[in-house]
Write a structure and sequence with these properties.
globular, mainly beta, 6 strands, three-stranded antiparallel β-sheet, 66 residues
């Protein structure tokens, strides 16, 4: 089952970044999904256990599963 998040939000199929607009602001990909599961916001990449597990290198909002 896919969850629909806030209006206009998309998740990049390449890097899982959540964004609005035409293409991903982090990697530039236009491969996107409007249905994604879970959302995590990473503020401190160096100290975040979730960021390490998801292999996230920059702060921001990410989909857990696209």
């Amino acid at each position: 089952r896919k969850e629909i998040m806030a209006s206009g939000e998309k998740a990049c199929k390449n890097c899982r970044t959540i964004y609005t607009g035409q293409k991903c602001p982090k990697c530039g990909s236009e491969e996107k999904s409007t249905g994604f599961k879970g959302k995590v916001v990473v503020l401190n990449v160096e100290e975040s256990e979730i960021a390490k597990k998801l292999k996230i290198k920059e702060k921001g909002a990410y989909a857990i599963k696209v």
